[in-house]
Write a structure and sequence with these properties.
There is one protein chain. Strands 1-3-2 form a three-stranded mixed β-sheet. A hairpin with a 4-residue loop joins strand 2 and strand 3. The chain is built from eight helices and three strands, in the order H-H-E-E-E-H-H-H-H-H-H. It has 225 residues and is mostly helical. The protein is 73% helix and 6% strand. The two termini are 20 Å apart.
Length: 225
C-alpha cells in the first residue's frame, strides 16, 4: 500500500514536468519560415512596449524574467532558436516584463514572498533538525510538536509562493503573450494551437515545484502527528 502511494506521488510530481519537456521538445524544431529567433522576438516586443531598458540574455538556468535586474533570460535553444517553442517562451517571458512595467500586484507579491521564502526555507530546515534534539533535552513531546509546528509554518511560506506563482504564469501566457502573438500577425493561424500548447507548458513549468512543496509539507505534518 505504501509503495502504491509513493508511486502515485511520484507520478503526480513528475508527470507535469515530463509533459512540459515533451511539449517544448515537440515544437522545438527550427522553422526557417519564422521571422526571427526567440531572442530577436523578445528584443522586438520589449522595444514595441517601450521596455528598451530591459535586457535579453542567454542563460543556462532556465527561461525566466529577473525583475531585479530587469532582464529576460532565455535558454540558448530559445534565444538562438527559430522554433514555435522559442517564439512562445520568449513572448511568455516578455509577458512577465510587461507585468512588471505595469506594476502587476500579483507579480510584486510573488517577488516579495520569494525573498521571504528563501529565508524561511533555511530556517525551517534548522527547526526540523533542532526539534528532536530540543525535545530530548526538555524530555517532553510537546516541545517536539511546538518546534515542528514552527518549522511547518515556515515551510508553508513556500506553498503560498507556489500558489501565487500559478496565476502570474497563466496571466503572462494567456493575457499577455497569446494576444500579442495572435493580434500581431507574427505567426500563421495554423501555428496558434501549437503556440497555445507551449504557452500552457510555460505556465505550468512551476507546477512540479508547487506539488513538491505540498508533498514536503504533508510529509512533515505526518511525521509530527
Amino acid at each position: 500500500m505504501i509503495g502504491l502511494v509513493i508511486v502515485a506521488l511520484l507520478a503526480v510530481i513528475l508527470l507535469p514536468q515530463l509533459w512540459v519537456r515533451h511539449t517544448l521538445t515537440r515544437h522545438g524544431n527550427d522553422r526557417p519560415d519564422l521571422q526571427g529567433t526567440g531572442g530577436e522576438l523578445a528584443r522586438h516586443l520589449l522595444d514595441r512596449f517601450g521596455l528598451k531598458n530591459v535586457r535579453v540574455e542567454i542563460t543556462g538556468l532556465g527561461d525566466h524574467y529577473d525583475p531585479d535586474s530587469r532582464t529576460v533570460r532565455l535558454l540558448r535553444q530559445h534565444h538562438d532558436g527559430r522554433s514555435l517553442s522559442a517564439v512562445a517562451v520568449a513572448a511568455h517571458e516578455v509577458g512577465h516584463a510587461i507585468q512588471h512595467s505595469r506594476g502587476d500586484r500579483m507579480l510584486e507579491l510573488r517577488q516579495r514572498l520569494v525573498k521571504i521564502a528563501m529565508r524561511t526555507d533555511r530556517l525551517a530546515v534548522l527547526f526540523f533538525i533542532a526539534a528532536p534534539v530540543l525535545a530530548a533535552l526538555a524530555r517532553h513531546p510537546a516541545v517536539l510538536i511546538a518546534v515542528g509546528a514552527v518549522g511547518m509554518g515556515l515551510m508553508a511560506v513556500r506553498v503560498v509562493v507556489d500558489a501565487v506563482t500559478l496565476p502570474v504564469e497563466f496571466d503572462a501566457s494567456f493575457k499577455k503573450a497569446l494576444p500579442i502573438l495572435k493580434n500581431g500577425s507574427y505567426l500563421a493561424p495554423e501555428d496558434m494551437p501549437a503556440i497555445r500548447s507551449v504557452l500552457r507548458a510555460a505556465a505550468l513549468s512551476y507546477l512540479a515545484g508547487a506539488l513538491m512543496s505540498l508533498v514536503n509539507l504533508a510529509r512533515w505534518i505526518r511525521v509530527l502527528r
